[in-house]
Amino acid sequence: MSAMNAMAGVPRTPSPSFFHHGWPLSSDDWDAQMLSFLSKGYRVVAHDRRGHGRSEQVADGHDKDHYAADAFAVAKALDLKNAVHIGHSRGGGEVARYVPRHGEPAGRVAKAVLVAAIPP
């Protein structure tokens, strides 16, 4: 039996998908994509960046460093490892900052997808 055939019977746990929204949107804007991924067995996560959606309105910390740190706090609290981070617009910039600062050193990023992103 080939290695490929032997692996076919082993259930595989897909990487979680972490969605980062654009400005001035919220996590709700990923609903269709999240439902699609969820229906295929993926764990999905989206957060409202500080000052957006259901997050607290704060006067400071509106920069990519703070946004990346906030996303890391969510990933750490949920113990997400080897996640696929998907960012649109400013969320793509958040992902671009998150990966080198918080993702790779902690083993929390498998891949990054930047969609019409505004990188740092």
TrEMBL record:
Query: Pfam families annotated for this entry?
Result: Abhydrolase_1
Provide a Gene Ontology MF annotation, just one.
hydrolase activity
Q: Does the keyword Hydrolase apply?
A: yes
GO CC field:
membrane
InterPro entries in the cross-refs: AB_hydrolase_1, AB_hydrolase_fold, AB_hydrolase_sf
Which UniProt keyword terms apply here?
Hydrolase
For the AB hydrolase-1 domain, which residue ranges apply? 19-117
Q: What is this protein called?
A: Pimeloyl-ACP methyl ester carboxylesterase
Q: Which organism is it from?
A: Rhizobium giardinii
